[in-house]
């Protein structure tokens, strides 16, 4: 009975982890939709600043209770700074792109991040990637080209910003895998500080006095993103990353639903076909990595 009870607890933990991951992805998608709404009126710097301030109001007490000393005794400070810079750049690029493109279009390009990670890991982390994964990487990048559309006119600045953002996001994942001794709280704290500093620098150039409702939405951005991050971290403690990682692709489903409900946006045929190719290639890469080295928890990250 003891063995059976332990097995039941294990299964229940995995089910709970999956549910928390699904909820976390929905929260991030809601955060992205709110961000797109606000970008119709306000600049990237202003949204970034007020989002980060709201997140810090919640994050500072949490970090303090977890042990403030751990925030300042960090491994490899140079990589910590680089990760915070990449995290901030990724958010800026995401908001800049989503101001002009449908949510589903931007998310399609961002879901190419695992393909970037697989392609760069031999050079950044010294990992071995076999021919099957290299084939999937090539197919995934073909999906990106398809999603861009059939002509050079489709190479719009927002689309290029999305691709650049997905690359920055992938590099942040790779650095996270090199900073495994750093607590999740410290990583989130310093990436939020990075976004706050960037917001302080950029916001004065395009500041618009926000209305009460919009000010609340900007604050909600930071709180919702922080809550989503905490849900995903908890999910990773309950279920293996190999189970959790593919669930990230529900972000595309939510982007389609929320984009249509809030903005009336639907992806065109090329974006839809490209999305199918990218998701298929990404899932294959996850599956192959699970069979060879296992999927690290750092592969599961928040998007914007």
From TrEMBL:
The chain crosses the membrane at residues 12-30, 50-72, 84-103, 109-126, 133-149, 155-175, 187-209, 215-232, 239-263, 269-286. Coiled coil: none annotated. The keyword Isomerase does not apply. SUPFAM superfamilies: Multidrug resistance efflux transporter EmrE. The keyword Transcription regulation does not apply. It holds the Pfam family EamA. Keywords: Membrane, Transmembrane, Transmembrane helix. Residues 16-147, 159-285 form the EamA domain. This is EamA-like transporter family protein.
